[in-house]
Design goal:
Blueprint: H1 7-18, E1 23-39, E2 42-60, E3 63-69, H2 75-87, E4 102-105, H3 118-131, E5 137-155, E6 160-177, E7 182-191, H4 196-199, H5 203-218, E8 226-232, H6 234-246, H7 251-255, E9 276-279, E10 300-305, E11 308-309, H8 316-319, E12 331-332, E13 340-341, E14 345-348, H9 355-359, E15 364-369, E16 374-377, E17 382-394, E18 397-410, H10 411-416, E19 418-421, E20 426-434, E21 437-445, E22 448-457
Parallel strand pairs: 4-6, 8-15, 14-21
Antiparallel strand pairs: 1-2, 1-5, 2-3, 5-6, 6-7, 8-22, 9-10, 9-14, 10-11, 12-13, 15-17, 16-17, 17-18, 18-22, 19-22, 20-21
Length: 459
Amino acid sequence: MTTGIDVDYFQKIIRKLESKVEYADIRVKNSVNNSIVLKDGKIDNVDTGINYAIGIRVLQNGAWGSAFTSDIEKVEQVAENATTIANQLKSDVKLTSTNPEEDIVKSKAKIKIEDVTIEDKISTMKELHKIAQRDQIQSTNVSLSESQSSDLIISSEGTNILSDNNRTVLSMNSVASNGEVMQIGHKSLGGVQGFEIIKNADLESFATGISDKAISLLDAKTPPSGDFPVILDPELAGVFIHEALGHASEADIILQNDSILKGRLGQKIGSDLVTVIDDASIETGFGYYPYDVEGTKSEKTTLVENGVFKSVLSSRETASKVGDGVSSGNARSSVSNKPLVRMSNTYIKPGESSFEELIEDLPNGIYLKGSRGGQVDTGKGIFQFNAVEAYNIEKGELGDHLRDVSLSGTTLDILNNITGVGSDFNLSVGFCGKDGQTVPVGDGGPHIRVSRATVGGVQ
């Protein structure tokens, strides 16, 4: 889809700006987006649109000036506005040095948005609704979100990157009821691909698995309360590492004095078994991007290595104030918003233990699976998450099925109490919100064993 962006025109704008300011960059996005929601087999909402957006950012006197437009005829005026704003301010912004990149990145999507009609997509979603039907299923919700774009980042330092991008996500909920209790089954599948991710999926297993999960939870028991050894599945382990450690590793959070990890670089913060990585270059991860919005090439960043806090996530601006002075390539935002430090694909590195080995010597514990959200205080390092389901572990065997289970504790205690790391691996599809901005992310890892954590019921 690399059309609709006149790169030569924007190069001319940059050349005009570079003689007036210390630094300037222009970001352009030309995108097509579809969003379809089906409730109980009927169309609830269909949004489709083409968006063209241009953001210009300049740095002068250590201060940013930014302006945005969707009108190509107003680009020069927007450039003047950004320059005027910067000239009226003074601040202490400094950018770390970078190697300017010139690149054209093609999307690997095989089935593009325009290759399948909206009607055919709705037909696929209606089929999912039919497959999901069971006696105790009261309601279903199926949603499809697609985006396809061409993106340009061009700067006064010589960066010139034009990339094609595709993302597709299919999500489904089934609500089950036995007349007294209601439970929800949920699952998403997606990736940086086109409609082939749905066409090639086993949709019957996808839909039946969601409904079967909701129904099975109707007969599950309420959990015990107290401190137990716990096993976290890859989804819940990923949510923990994203929310409790990943956000605390973001340089802007550290600079705001809102991170439990401030001042701990180089220190031991967890078990020797714990290695945590953020890697935007994983093309199979939902948080994939080849370059961040400042044109820094994506790469693997090891946040924690064998329990030692090794690196922070940063942008060019924050890297000048914290970390090793080199951007990790984690500046992300929409064209109309200022770049923030954001995670990409964040995960715990797999170890060597099988699931059976993780539970075999536990006389009494809890196995927690899936995530239904929660809350984290990155400054105090405390968290509370809700699991989708759980099982008692009795003498190394899985026992009673549990529902409405919470997990709580402190980030550093959990990291230090990890006594086993599985050899399996999975990355989940998700979205992360921060300061009003939302970006696609992946998080996950293997199963992990924690010697002690607080488990309770969800009210």
